Recover the amino acids of this structure.
């Protein structure tokens, strides 16, 4: 492990640690400690220097721990886990699983998690701001059959699973904005990115990326270009490793159900969480005219229904904007 990540683990508890004590544990000088402390700003960490005492992390956090996550997985889920990677820093958890390109059995899956992403991605090529240690960045790779994938709705199913896991943690007022954004009180709390690959006829490898805001530090907040929320604002206090395991359990269970029953099994759940239906919306899609109308829910394939001039049509892609307040 690189020196700076060992230093972060020592500071993660939020207590004051003297430069001398840190240097002794790391096997470096006090000047070396100071040099590494300065470098932590690049990861979005705010370290306070307390005169005459030492250093402390402004926002303490619980480091991700592979053993802790595995211990919280349901037995049936753990038995199918091919690999669980936990990284201090990475470009993108989705890209890591795509690079691995591991041949998975039909029922197996792999997971990648990270404390920090240098190139986290959201939908439509947007950047996902990923400060160190404060949020959850998780990707899961698995196989999905051609019949289920062709029937549509996978992206919505993942959103339903994430929202359900957050509700199980005590989050109230969670809702979904088509196709897969999780909102809390009118602001984006979590996002989902799907990367699908495979030959015609399937099965297809799907990499599901999830980013959840737990406690966005001030230094990172100004980098987010849309209204956002985090779990700390809702009063929900959840163990990061426990939340990671809950997400894995929820995703695997939802994907099993989707493969067996298709999207039809999830439509009622979507309707209960839908923030878009009945609202005036605009749908933007690359190289296509702006579509305006009133959202009328979704069709059996998970496409967005928009009514305009008395005619309702289905739309399978695009970016929805609306007033959530």
């Amino acid at each position: 492990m690189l020196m700076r990540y060992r230093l972060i683990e020592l500071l993660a508890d939020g207590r004051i640690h003297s430069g001398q004590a840190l240097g002794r544990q790391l096997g470096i000088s006090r000047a070396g400690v100071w040099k590494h402390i300065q470098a932590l700003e690049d990861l979005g960490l705010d370290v306070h220097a307390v005169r005459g005492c030492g250093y402390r992390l402004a926002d303490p956090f619980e480091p991700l721990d592979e053993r802790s996550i595995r211990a919280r997985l349901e037995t049936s889920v753990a038995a199918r886990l091919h690999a669980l990677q936990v990284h201090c820093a990475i470009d993108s958890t989705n890209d890591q699983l795509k690079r691995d390109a591991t041949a998975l059995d039909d029922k197996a899956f792999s997971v990648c998690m990270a404390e920090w992403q240098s190139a986290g991605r959201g939908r439509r090529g947007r950047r996902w701001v990923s400060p160190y240690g404060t949020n959850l960045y998780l990707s899961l790779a698995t196989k999905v059959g051609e019949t289920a994938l062709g029937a549509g709705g996978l992206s919505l199913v993942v959103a339903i699973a994430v929202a359900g896991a957050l509700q199980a943690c005590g989050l109230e007022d969670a809702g979904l904005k088509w196709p897969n954004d999780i909102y809390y009180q009118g602001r984006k709390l979590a996002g989902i990115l799907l990367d699908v690959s495979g030959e015609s006829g399937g099965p297809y490898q799907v990499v599901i990326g999830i980013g959840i805001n737990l406690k966005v530090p001030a230094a990172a907040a100004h980098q987010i270009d849309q209204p956002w929320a985090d779990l700390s604002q809702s009063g929900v206090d959840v163990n990061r490793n426990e939340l990671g395991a809950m997400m894995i359990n929820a995703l695997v269970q939802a994907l099993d159900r989707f493969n067996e029953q298709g999207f039809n099994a999830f439509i009622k759940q979507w309707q209960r969480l839908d923030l878009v239906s009945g609202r005036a919306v605009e749908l933007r899609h690359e190289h296509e005219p702006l579509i305006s109308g009133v959202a009328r829910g979704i069709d059996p394939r998970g496409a967005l229904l928009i009514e305009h001039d008395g005619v309702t049509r289905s739309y399978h892609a695009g970016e929805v904007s609306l007033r959530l307040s």
User: Anything to note?
Assistant: The mean pLDDT is 91.
